């Protein structure tokens, strides 16, 4: 009897009134948000957890660094492909159904990677982990936006945003320690246990948010196009290490990938146009406005039913017409590109070039995670008070300075020099990533937030997935050039590799500079927090204080 009551309560949909009262979350909403945040934390924690273990895995399987980094890149790429499905999944299935199915797939993937006897099986396990966690951040994001009022979203997103931003930063620390203590497979054993516990907790206590439509359908052909598009482009690019640029294994996948991406974009644009026309048709018919469905007569009930059945595109790129949203998405993508790639490159420098252990590699990167945890929370609160522009400017300039200083590493640098500047970099990340994302979504209409969340998260994940192989290959290209210039030989390879790391970091710094320019000239308008806005707010507060004083 008690179990039946518990199941009924779990399946109840929490409305905004049931979730947020008198400036606080209700108990049921708080527990559910906590569960969603924890599961999202686990998924993002898993993204880069293998970065400190990557040199060990590369050595054990006898593969190249470029091949090994697919363990990180495929995770982010699959997450990027899964994110567009979020809009469909949240329409078609309940919150509980999505989360429970996702954690089941994640647990199976972790189990397979733990027991896998070959690199291919481990890679497939990582793919399943990504499928299982790919929708969790968008689901959490949409839930927060549907519960909190506009004035409280900055703080809320800054708090739950730590699940996305801090988790990948502490992943290498714990992953490195586990690798040294019990081998890299212990990472997947731990994730299998965590996945199983999360599955049980979600089944027992997670509540539903928002209604779902059992008639909703997904455009799985577009899903296939995105897989071939982005996957083909990355596959061809990573083959540059093994083949000449003119080799078919390089240019053929890249052409297929570019073709798939173009086809994907055109299909989404046509789908959005068709859906919007159908929506206008139905709206006019409901208001009794004369419309023509092509027959020269008033629309029939069958025509109206067909229009209602028209499904939205997998990814509604129409939100990119909003200039502020586009600027915010570009900034978030550039920051994720720089962040993800350096989280792969620096453990290689620390372990391969300087000879430190995986545990030491993780500890060196750990202070950055703590810095980002602090700045993530403060950035959200500051966004609510000052607006996005001053917060994002401080963050992007800090990120630029930290990246530029990190590029000065050498063969005899104090190893904690890396830790100091990674700390500075992640302070900047905390101040720029979540505030700029929250501001860009706030610039959309409420009905567009779900589509906007899917677009910005897809762009960010794809940028992160592309960032690692692009900068790793550039690093190895500079390394080979320097190695040849030094006359070859094993004794000069470490010096050449450090040269490659330096130039990869300089390229990353240039990309962050582009982001600073975007923020400086692009973040404007409502919620941006310009000097004029701040002056008006200050004058309003002064008037209110003056009136209060006169009232006394």
From TrEMBL:
Report the superkingdom from the record: Bacteria
Q: What is its main location?
A: membrane
Q: What is this protein called?
A: MFS transporter
Locate the transmembrane regions by residue number.
28-50, 70-89, 98-124, 130-148, 155-175, 187-206, 218-237, 249-266, 325-350, 356-379, 391-417, 423-441, 462-479, 503-523
User: What is a single Pfam family found in this protein's UniProt entry?
Assistant: MFS_1
Q: PROSITE patterns, from UniProt?
A: MFS
Under InterPro entries, the record lists: MFS, MFS_dom, MFS_trans_sf
Q: Name one GO molecular function term.
A: transmembrane transporter activity
- Which residues are in the Major facilitator superfamily (MFS) profile domain? 32-527
The topology of this chain with respect to the membrane is: Multi-pass membrane protein
GO CC annotation terms, alphabetical: plasma membrane
The coiled-coil regions, if any, are none
- Location(s) in or outside the cell: Cell membrane
Keyword set, alphabetical order: Membrane, Transmembrane, Transmembrane helix, Transport
